[in-house]
Backbone:
């Protein structure tokens, strides 16, 4: 394989005088009127490169590392067998539904007698325009900081070329890393890409599970095209180029404080009224303050007022979230409809945690904390804590508020008896499948009929079309099941750590990554690299650092990731 570095301008592609892409080298040169500064260096067993373009006059350009010769070409997801341009960003944060030939990592691997992996900085540093152009029939690839345009062999969104603007003091820098290794399968290649991300941009701790968790979120960082901050974070490649409220709260738990704060600042004011968003904003504001940051107290006050309004809709201490006219979109379980006066355990528990956060931030909550706690506990039906007062279903999200409260304030909300009874009921029912525990199920653990997800005779059309075992219709959500196990562990469940290990392995055994959910009928993982799963690493790390966690979980994760072939 012969490698080269090119500068692309509107006039064509211009080779740069790199002697050896794997060696340390520095030079200044000029190509097509654009000044280029190149520096390569050794870092953590890799070659790091920073190449910068500038000009006295307004110009446009991008860089590509190209390879020509025999070899198998891999994206983060798969072996590439036909020409494709793979992207990380759709460039329209308002467009939820789109079709893009995309991959979660701005990375590319070429396999000959060894494997060479190229991995760039997160897309946000390239205006969200990192691309990988695979041309296997021509035995060629280009790994780029811009967009060549076109979508070969793909029937979806169309993309125009994109060149970065330089000139007048504005420069463009492409930062990437190269690693030689012996990874010979997609699982092993993914593992190396995660490790490279952590080594280059994280804490370089060398821990595989940390690398998987950190790497997936670092690479979801984007330039904030809405303008509310410089950067924000997307939940995953399958979403628009937009940050989501609850996802970002979890995702940023593993990121450096300055990156987290950018995402916190990006929180859009029009999000505050929706679902459990005011609760998360208050909790996040407290978390920022606890780390020594400066929370936005004005926006926190708005979140506080909305929370109090929702508390005053019903009886004392009952949190009734804002939803749509059908009772849907009132919490993460978006297309499940609730009657308007129904109390769901997930939202109620988070409300208790948010009230505590609000009090710590200086807001006058009166006796609402005690009343909301009493309401939360009153949902227990003598056998388990159900999905809601009017939906007596088994649900693994009922202890989320309890766990967040324990992590942030050092104590759980639920009595041990309620949590352990609920845990035992779910884990010894048909809710437990070979592909994870169903996020919601009938009292005996069986799949629910579709009408169980409705209210007032209305079932959301998206829910009505959901096949059994998919998404909220009995799918197994990684984050919610793992948080359920962690909460149970804090209450003394003897099998909780073993269940955490089992659930993590379900994802890792599938393809070496974690997913939004596992389809509990088909057994496939959906949405690899779902960002919010990283919160599980952060939560367990905190417990271990506080002397409360069991290191067996991390040890098992390292061993399994190291074994993936």
Residues:
């Amino acid at each position: 394989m012969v490698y080269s570095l090119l500068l692309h301008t509107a006039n064509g592609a211009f080779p740069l005088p790199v002697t050896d892409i794997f060696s340390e080298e520095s030079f200044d040169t000029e190509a097509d009127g654009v000044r280029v500064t190149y520096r390569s260096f050794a870092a953590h067993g890799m070659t790091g490169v920073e190449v910068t373009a500038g000009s006295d006059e307004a110009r446009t350009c991008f860089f590509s590392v190209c390879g020509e010769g025999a070899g198998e070409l891999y994206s983060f997801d798969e072996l590439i067998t036909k020409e494709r341009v793979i992207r990380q960003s759709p460039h329209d944060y308002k467009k939820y539904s789109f079709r893009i030939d995309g991959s979660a990592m701005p990375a590319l691997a070429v396999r000959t007698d060894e494997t060479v992996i190229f991995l760039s900085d997160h897309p946000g540093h390239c205006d969200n325009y990192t691309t990988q152009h695979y041309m296997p029939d021509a035995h060629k690839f280009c790994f780029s900081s811009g967009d060549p345009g076109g979508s070969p062999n793909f029937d979806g969104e169309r993309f125009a070329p994109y060149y970065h603007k330089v000139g007048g003091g504005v420069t463009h820098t492409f930062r990437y890393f190269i690693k030689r290794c012996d990874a010979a399968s997609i699982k092993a290649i993914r593992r190396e890409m995660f490790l490279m991300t952590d080594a280059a941009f994280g804490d370089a701790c060398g821990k595989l599970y940390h690398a998987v968790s950190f790497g997936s979120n670092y690479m979801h960082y984007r330039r904030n095209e809405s303008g509310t901050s410089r950067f924000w974070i997307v939940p995953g490649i399958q979403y628009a180029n937009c940050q989501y409220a609850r996802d970002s709260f979890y995702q940023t738990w593993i990121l450096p404080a300055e990156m987290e704060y950018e995402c916190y600042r990006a929180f859009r004011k029009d999000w505050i009224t929706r679902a459990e968003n005011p609760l998360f904003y208050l909790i996040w504001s407290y978390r920022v303050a606890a780390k020594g940051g400066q929370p936005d107290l004005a926006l926190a006050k708005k979140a506080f007022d909305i929370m109090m309004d929702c508390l005053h809709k019903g009886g004392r201490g009952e949190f009734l979230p804002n939803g749509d006219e059908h009772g849907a979109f009132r919490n993460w379980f978006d297309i499940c409809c609730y009657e308007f006066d129904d109390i769901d355990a997930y939202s109620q528990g988070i409300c208790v945690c948010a009230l505590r956060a609000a009090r710590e931030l200086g807001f006058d909550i009166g006796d609402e904390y005690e009343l909301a706690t009493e309401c939360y506990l009153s949902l227990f039906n003598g056998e388990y804590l159900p999905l809601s007062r009017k939906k007596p279903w088994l649900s693994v999200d009922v202890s989320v508020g309890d766990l967040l409260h324990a992590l942030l304030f050092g104590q759980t909300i639920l009595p041990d008896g309620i949590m352990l009874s609920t845990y035992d009921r779910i884990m010894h029912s048909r809710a437990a499948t070979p592909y994870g525990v169903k996020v919601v199920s009938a009292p005996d653990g069986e799949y629910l009929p579709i009408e169980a997800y409705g209210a007032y005779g209305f079932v959301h059309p998206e829910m009505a079309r959901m096949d059994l075992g998919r998404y909220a219709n009995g799918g197994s959500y990684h984050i919610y099941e793992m948080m359920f196990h962690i909460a149970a562990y804090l209450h003394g469940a003897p099998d909780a750590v073993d269940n955490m290990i089992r659930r993590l392995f379900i994802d890792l055994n599938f393809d070496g990554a974690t997913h939004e959910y596992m389809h509990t009928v088909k057994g496939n993982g959906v949405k690899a690299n779902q960002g919010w799963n990283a919160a599980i690493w952060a939560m367990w790390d905190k417990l271990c650092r506080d002397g409360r966690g069991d290191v067996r979980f991390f040890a098992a994760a390292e061993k399994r990731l190291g074994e993936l072939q």
Remarks:
- The two ends are 25 Å apart (CA to CA).
- The longest strand covers residues 34-43.
- Residues 169 and 546 are 48 Å apart (CA to CA).
- The chain has 15 helices and 24 strands.
